[in-house]
Design goal:
Oligomer: single chain
Order of helices and strands: EHEEEEHEEEEH
Distance between the termini: 36 Å
Radius of gyration: 16 Å
Structural class: mainly beta
Shape: globular
Number of strands: 9
Strand content: 35-45%
Largest sheet: 8 strands, antiparallel, barrel
């Protein structure tokens, strides 16, 4: 299968992240049209572009993914009129160790949560970690955006303290 996403996800240290030169973030507004254990259908408005994405079930850090550009106005309409859950975040792209890290500062009911993701060519890639990475949460479904759209971070009864390394 050619449309495979191989991705690792990490909690970010707030204090160290504030010191990172990151430029301007892009606001991502994403709504979920379908969420179940085998697939997620997401619509995203990012900057002035729209996307629809279908993701299959995750096996550790690997899952099928199909993403297509759609008109921005269609993305907004789908999010506003058809989504069953929604997440907003500011995304920053940061280069480190020859790779692009995507760092999301969540907004709204998920405010305070900062996650970093890195896409890999294969599951055996060696990664240099920036010092603002705390610990890996790949595979922890609580940190999936689709989960956060229904169970926001600020409503968790016992959120993981992410300003200290475990």
């Amino acid at each position: 299968m050619k449309n495979i996403e191989i991705e690792k996800k990490f909690l970010v240290d707030h204090k160290k992240w504030q010191l990172v030169p990151k430029g301007t973030g892009i606001l991502f507004d994403q709504g979920y049209l379908s969420i179940d254990k085998d697939k997620v259908v997401r619509v995203r408005a990012a900057g002035n572009k729209g996307y629809i994405t279908v993701k299959g079930a995750s096996e550790s850090m690997v899952r099928p993914e199909y993403e297509y550009v759609i008109p921005y106005s269609d993305a907004i309409e789908l999010i506003c009129n058809f989504s069953i859950g929604r997440v907003k975040k500011l995304r920053y792209n940061v280069e480190f160790g020859g790779r692009r890290w995507e760092v999301d500062e969540f907004q709204g009911d998920n405010f305070g949560l900062i996650l970093a993701e890195i896409e890999l060519e294969n599951s055996d890639c060696v990664i240099d970690y920036p010092d603002w990475i705390l610990h890996e949460v790949t595979g922890d479904q609580r940190y999936y955006n689709s989960y956060l759209s229904h169970y926001p971070f600020n409503a968790w009864s016992c959120p993981i303290p992410y300003n200290e390394k475990p």
